[in-house]
From TrEMBL:
EC number: 2.7.1.17
Protein family: Belongs to the FGGY kinase family.
Taxonomic lineage from the root: Bacteria, Thermotogati, Deinococcota, Deinococci, Deinococcales
Source taxon at top rank: Bacteria
Organism name: Deinococcus soli
Protein's name in the database: Xylulokinase
Signal peptide range: none
UniProt xrefs under CDD domains: ASKHA_NBD_FGGY_RrXK-like (cd07804)
PROSITE patterns with a match to the protein in the record: FGGY_KINASES_2
Amino acid sequence: MSAEPAQDLLIGVDVGTYSSKGVLTTLDGQIVAQHVVPHGISVPRHGHVEQDADAVWWADVVTILLELLREPGTAERVAGVACSAIGPTLLPLNAGGRPLRPGILYGVDTRAQAQIDALNAELGEAAILAHSDMALTSQATGPKIRWLREQEPEVWAQARTLTSAGSYLVFRLTGEHVIDHHTGAHFMPLYDPRTRTWTDRFAASVLGDRGLEVLPRLAWSDERAGQVTAAAAAETGLRPGTPVAVGTVDALAEGLSVGAARPGDLMVMYGSSTFFILTQERPTPDPRVWSVGGAFAGQVNLAAGMSTTGSLTRWIVDEFAREQDTAAAYDELFTQAAALPPGADGLLMLPYFSGERTPVNDPRARGVVAGLTLSHTRAHLFRAALEGVGFGIRHNLDALRDLGADVRRVVAVGGGTKGGTWLQIVSDITGQVQELPRVTVGASYGDAFLAGLAAGALTRDDLDRWVQPGPPVTPDAATRAEYDRLYGLYRALYPATREIVHAL
């Protein structure tokens, strides 16, 4: 009789805005295999940003798992699996757990501004801030739930569960409706950060006559949500009964992937948008940012996010270098941008091409390019975009410090860290040292760690073994005076153009 195979592997899968990625690791974090599946977003009208839950989210997960488990005997060795995804999103499900419409994305989707205004008027902005530890913005899911109730009554009538992207993946794997506290906090004002429970205090203004039973069960990211069902195993190749972690949003998983999990650690994620997560010992509520639960029981995160960063550089490549291979165009533009002086020869950009989240919190904000002349090239535009994002990152760091948050260490992660040019520009603008771990696989690597915790194969102390530091990016003091001057102009540009942009 042959012995059972050792369960010495872990799987993490992350569904991002423009691609999904999976990783197969050993219990000590060594990468065995990876797989990436690209996808797109749907913008049916301005301000509405959506994705199909089955055709994109679940289909990507299935494709990735089948690829990672391709070698015979691999599934039997997997100790646990965890998923993360874009969030917070809103996905209504019918009584059978099937999606009733495409998922409504996180803060880049700005459709619910009228509902934000209505909730603020009905409940009071001060009352909402005191209750939720943050103000209503386009990142909040509660106003989007109200939008769904008001604008799509036929969908609302059939909805029996209101979930998010990562929670839907957990449901497809386990049959369990469960959501992590980090994501749940964004379902404000339905979440009470003091009791860590759903609350009906303001529920009528969001859910109408529905009760809190339409919301998934709350749990911490490293807890076990359930186990892989026979039906999910048949689709994915996973072993039935494999433990599945609760998981979380992509940004929090990305923070874990680079070891940003202790108080004072700030993760800056350079993706299609830029996201910030600061691990704290106690909350510091402020309407400019988001105060949410962390990955582990009792943890608090201060989160912030810019709407259009990597997607802005992609827009420039798509529109101004469409005749080139995308990868080659990026290489050329980064090289050319690195050769230009700070300030891109008099060009300044507000990167608010999809509105802006923190600390501006203006869904009606738009991109502004100031100082254009006939001598400027696409490389100047690209450099101005990199610097515009850098100024936006400095704006967010200033906001965190203004409210008394303790930032002790900055760890960078994400696709925008490749090559170093963008990181150097940001360090020069902010004056901030940025740490860059040797292995920067992304959120899926953090998911694999969560899978190990949920399966009982790892402890939190093992994170130090998984994450090895690389060389830091240090600011160039020679650029400081010029960037300080330009930052002042950047901060003045938004209020100077806001009313014109809103009118447009």
